[in-house]
Amino acid sequence: MWHPVAIWRACGTDTKGKQEVEAALLARATVFTDEVAQSVSIGEAQHAVAEGLIAESDVHQLGAVINGTHAGRVSDDQITLFDGTGVGLQDLAVAAAVVDLAVAQGLRSRWIFRRAKRRSFEM
Prior knowledge:
The protein has 123 residues and is of the alpha/beta class.
């Protein structure tokens, strides 16, 4: 039995055949991912799709929630699952959004990154 929580996360290494949660959970959940094609071919959705429990169109881009074209989780009893397939560019976009939000709320921190020469980055 799966109980609704804020979100289930499946973020293990993606490869053909891997499985972190039962396919039936995806059939009951609203499924989000960073890359639909990867989720249905080698990610967590591959088994649910292969078993006919969900279609590729039942797997939603996380970006659709971020840009407001998908409502995301809409009720306390809704089960949601995020299959993180490891798209670095999206990770950077989310990090940038978090920094922008922190700056907008007046939260600041000063980080120093070291490379060839010392540079500072202020949020």
